[in-house]
What we know:
Layout: H1 20-30, E1 34-36, E2 43-45, H2 47-66, E3 70-72, E4 77-79, H3 80-83, H4 87-93, E5 98-103, E6 106-114, H5 119-129, E7 138-147, E8 162-172, H6 175-195, E9 202-205, E10 217-224, E11 230-240, E12 250-252, E13 258-260, E14 262-269, H7 271-280, E15 297-301, H8 308-324, E16 329-331, H9 339-348, E17 353-357, H10 359-364, E18 366-371, E19 377-381, H11 385-410, E20 412-413, H12 418-427, E21 431-436, H13 440-450, E22 453-458, E23 477-482
Parallel strand pairs: 3-7, 15-16, 15-17, 20-21
Antiparallel strand pairs: 1-2, 4-6, 5-6, 7-8, 8-14, 9-10, 9-22, 10-11, 11-14, 12-13, 17-18, 18-19, 21-23, 22-23
Amino acid sequence: MSSQPRGEAAGITVKKSEDFSEWYTQVVLKAGLADYAPVKGFIVLRPYGYAIWESIRDILDRRFKETGHQNGFLPVLIPESLLSKEEDHFAGFTPEVFWVTKAGDNNIGEKLALRPTSETLAYSVFAKWITSYRDLPLKINFWNTALRAEIKATKPFIRTSEFLWQEGHTVHATEEEAEQEVMTILGIYKDMIENYLAVPVITGYKSDTEKFVGAKYTTTLEGLMADGKALQMGTSHHLAQNFSKPFEIKYLGKDTKEHFAWQTSWGVSWRLIGALIMVHGDDKGLVLPPQIAPIQVVIVPIHKDKDAKLVKDKAAEIELELKHAGIRAYMDSRDEYTSGWKFNEWEMKGVPLRINLGPRDIEKGQVEFVRRDTKDKKQDDRTKLVDTANSLLVEIQKNLLSKARAFLQENISRPASYDEFKSIIENKGGFVMVGWCGQEECEEKIKQDTGADIRVLPFDQKDRPGKCIYCGQDSKKAAIFARAY
């Protein structure tokens, strides 16, 4: 389980509050989550990072299947003619597309795009599969990768040229069903992000400028990172008939007439791992919420040579008992490292709970627990092992979410003037809730002036200010602006 590269300074060498970007990179590399690949903009996911992704994937996969979705597989290459079938969609993705033009030394006939997203590919096939209302709804999810050229600024998990994600694509007989699907998925995402990742989000619509290219509307979940920047955590799109018409996804209804279908698409990516790091991490490294931590409890035997066998045997018993109770436990039996070194490594990896076990603990019939989030220590009877571990894991999960919620609430500003708005964006950051007249011109001017864009038009509009922050006309919406990743 060791992640520390030899010859590097052990531990994180910068403070989160002083150099956020460098701190983040060190956590990714030193906690053994990922490494840089030989090609710029790409990363290699290491087993510990992949294990976190598997936790996220398993939670979502279960929920998708419970709501009637099935998994499928799509190839990575898309013919140019297919990608360009929905014009707005094509124009939106063209700058980011990687193209394949050769096979060996031979030029291939039509350029092939490496999948930036799969709408066009999936829908060309859906058109063949759907003929009657009996074929609907069609609800398929794909666990795959997408490739989008990130040449300017790359950041592991947040902005890379290839990323792991899931993309769902559904086809419905009515618009109501499609709209219901959009909201069902948004609810699944919100539950997973808040109750498993312990990251609070604000849900709502994207503005027309920021929505998914080709969608009628996009719903989004926006999180606030510790440096005051926003991060889009996931999106669920109502595609209406914008793709079913060019792709001729039609069905024969009960009325014996032909109808164009209604569609949705939705996805989250490994960007969620980046959010976890940024929101919960501290100067020692990762802090993982118990619900998604690959290891929830690590047991570190502390012994001199003469006690080694006794302590290790007892530690192994603890590991087994925790595992039998459904707790993801791991006993660190490595002799080549000191217990102090192990403490630091497991803190860096963000394991929620550590059990220190030495001869004295065994003698007293007790166990020492150390929480990763608060550093608090607690001694308890060995007989209460499972109950204590479970209750501490629940407390840690709750604490991480409530801390992140408090941070979010403290960093939602409501300026009274445009000058105040600019000052907040420039100096404090965070989410800035203002009135917006609905005009793209005001949205664009604010973005040019401040680098902040509309992250979300919240579903909850009860606090809508009366006037547009930029032009002073009556506001149509409360909008949250922020600078973002």
